[in-house]
Design brief:
The protein is α+β, with helices and mostly antiparallel strands. Helix content is 28%, strand content 23%. It is built from 12 helices and 22 strands. The strands form 6 sheets. A 7-stranded mixed beta sheet has the order 13-14-17-12-20-18-19. Strands 6-5-4-10-22 form a 5-stranded parallel beta sheet, covered by helices on one side. A hairpin with a 3-residue loop joins strand 7 and strand 8. The mean pLDDT is 95.
Amino acid sequence: MKEFEISKKIGQELSREELVEAAAKALGVKVQGVGDVKLVRRSVDARGDILYRYRIQACRAGEALDEFVPEPYRDVRGAPAVIVVGAGPAGMFAALKLLQKGFRPIILERGKDVEARKVDMAALSRDGVLNPDSNYCFGEGGAGAFSDGKLYTRSSKRGDVREVLQALVSFGASEEILIDAHPHIGTDRLPEIVKNIRRCIEDHGGEYHFNSRVTDVEHGFRVSCADGKVYEASRLILAAGHSAKDLYSMFVRKGWAVEQKGFALGVRVEHPQWMINQLRYHGKYQPFMPVAEYSFVHQVDGRGVFSFCMCPGGILVPSSTEEGTVVLNGMSNAARNSKWANAGVVVQIEPGDQPESYTGPLGLLEYQADVERSMCEWVAARGESRHPFAAPAQRMKDFCRGIVSKDLPRTSYFPGAVSAPLNELLPEHVASRLRKVFPLVERQMRGYYTNDALLLGVESRTSSPVRLPRDPETLEHLSVKGLYPAGEGAGYAGGIVSSALDGINCAVKLCENFKL
């Protein structure tokens, strides 16, 4: 097998004949001597001419390329039950793996199914009506279902990424996610994929229970829900997501191990998409080209400052899970065709960075919540917006200069923005690093540092500020045998693919340990 790269100008078709000819040259054989040829990656190169760079795998005739072959799903009616708390990526993929291994998943989701969830999100954005169990963070599909569907993880340390990507394709995603360097599905297409996963699990004997917020877990496991129903199984996978504060508080009350974990805090930065297109393509952007993205990482005063969850052609949405808080996130549809580009720009927060009053295993979680509340309280005190989730905002250069913006550019954020001293509302150790990073980014991307860019607060749900410690070999929680903390909320992942892989890993270990 040989792996090699070829390039082609964007807008020009790459033919099968060109692939085979390039493979023959790389393999040192005639065209007739080429066996399988596979396109494995495609990325944009805008350093000179705007090119697609393709990575190709090829082998000689008579040989075969390595292919990922998934295990079949089994009918698990009557099989041993495993409770899975949470129907986000970690929970869904853990349940799919349980089917493959012959166990019956019982999924308890505090929120609603993905279609009903849309109604609650619309009410939140339009009218400021928050359902604390069904919103942009909670509900079938998890927080990732309405955040563009970016699938950027390529790390092989967590597992075989192909298992997740090929499963998503089998449930309705475009095959392009298998090759794109920065694959995404789109908020408009993800709900159907999530429903297809549910149908598969139910068709094979698994169970889904919506509006089933877990209120208590007893050893054994006896799991009580807010609706009064109780579920029992001998094993439990906890994939509750990064915003399940009540569950992590329950762990502390029971004396089960919980520890602080670093997270990141900052703002959502919104530019006009045309501006990002022009600066990333060096003025050569054409409508047939993919809309431009960006990313950066800098070290500023001993902490990482980086872009997060960049949504080209996207919009900003309210991601609060509690009244009296303001939290923002970004999302975009498959076409990525809105007028705006947005990204989180955040500062790494480590245990000990918070004020001394925030102690204990939930100290960073409480600190995160108080920053979110401070944003809401400032806007409410001014009385300039009737929407309870309106966001404090400031133009980029004004933020760096400590000037309250006289006016604000248009924003995609439907609840609206209120001109505010965001540079003062953010914790100083966050604001000071953000003030320094934007001029640094300008050196990489000329035109990024501009007063036409809007900063809105706060972006705080980048990852979980807690970790549920687990045995590195069995992946069981250190305090509770048979309980498997999984995914982003448990502190072991940071996105859709990494969460899915962690859910898979927990399910595999559970099945192995079950036989002991």
